[in-house]
Specification:
Helix content: 10-25%
Order of helices and strands: EEHHHHEEEEEEEEEEEEEEE
Largest sheet: 8 strands, antiparallel
CATH superfamily of the largest domain: Exo-inulinase, domain 1
Shape: elongated
CATH class of the largest domain: Mainly Beta
């Protein structure tokens, strides 16, 4: 008796073709259909909308793209002014070093700011001549990011973010602020016509190395404060703006007589609208 496989059977009494032929025709029609899987519940639409795409981590760049197929412009912040100094020299920066032992030392890729020994002694590094191409007013939606480690936070106040050369008596400042007296970290904002506002950020020990980010949106009305890429707080102040030039600022102030507290800042990166 001959053995007949399932695929060789006739599809139906109304259609004189084998099941195998019918399946082949269905697959061919599906492959020729440009709208296949594009419905709201289709797999391609689901794939597009998914937060996690089913490619192995790191597989896209390493084995899916040809050499030189992605330009530097595509991997940078398109349409933005970008600044990423490595602090090889501090000649272009404003610096203030008050008191005995105060110092600003440029290391490979990071800074070491050390305050003087008297309470109130300030050490500040800030943008200098910040009034040409890179004018970081709030209407430019500036973005600030830096690694910070403050192992001697118990002896000083610390400010880092966007401000002027006088961050401890500011008229315009968007920054992280460590208050030694309170032993608290704040998201701090102040501008002309807007009183100083401090929003406490909890769950972070600035003694450890962390990455701090400030993202200004809506021309200054919305300011996001991130630590290690986790949103910690959003400051919403309708109409908040700083029209005068502000720039990156790193500052410490002694709050413990006889100590020379220091803080490390590194991997600094910022950008803004043109």
């Amino acid at each position: 008796m001959a053995l007949i496989t399932w695929g060789a059977l006739i599809k139906s009494i109304f259609e004189n073709k084998t099941i195998a032929t019918y399946i082949y025709e269905m697959i061919a029609a599906h492959e020729a259909d440009p709208d296949a899987h594009l419905s709201a519940t289709g797999s391609l639409q689901s794939h597009k909308a998914s937060e996690i795409i089913d490619h192995l981590a790191l597989s896209i760049v390493t084995d899916k793209l040809e050499e030189h197929s992605v330009t530097v412009e595509k991997t940078s912040i398109a349409g933005k002014l970008v600044l990423q100094p490595l602090f090889d020299t501090l000649d272009a920066w404003y610096s203030l070093k008050e008191g005995t032992g105060a110092n600003i030392t440029a290391k490979v890729g990071y800074l070491d700011l050390e305050a003087g020994t008297v309470v109130g002694d300030k050490t500040i590094l800030a943008a200098n001549n910040w009034d040409r191409i890179f004018i970081a007013t709030t209407d430019k939606n500036p973005f600030f990011r830096s690694l910070i480690q403050a192992e001697e936070k118990d002896y000083c106040d610390i400010i880092f973010g966007y401000g002027s050369q006088t961050p401890f008596s500011p008229t315009g400042l968007i920054a992280f602020k460590w208050d030694k007296t309170d032993a608290k970290l704040y998201a701090y904002t102040i501008a002309s016509g807007f009183a100083a506002q401090s929003v406490e950020i909890t769950g972070i020990d600035i003694n450890d190395l962390h990455e701090y980010t400030i993202e200004v949106l809506d021309l200054g009305s919305t300011i996001n404060f991130y630590i290690d890429n986790v949103l910690k707080t959003t400051v919403s102040r309708a109409g908040f703006s700083i029209d005068s030039d502000i720039g990156p600022v790193f500052a410490i102030q002694n709050d413990e007589a006889g100590e020379n507290p220091d803080v490390w800042f590194g991997n600094f990166y910022l950008y803004q609208d043109k």
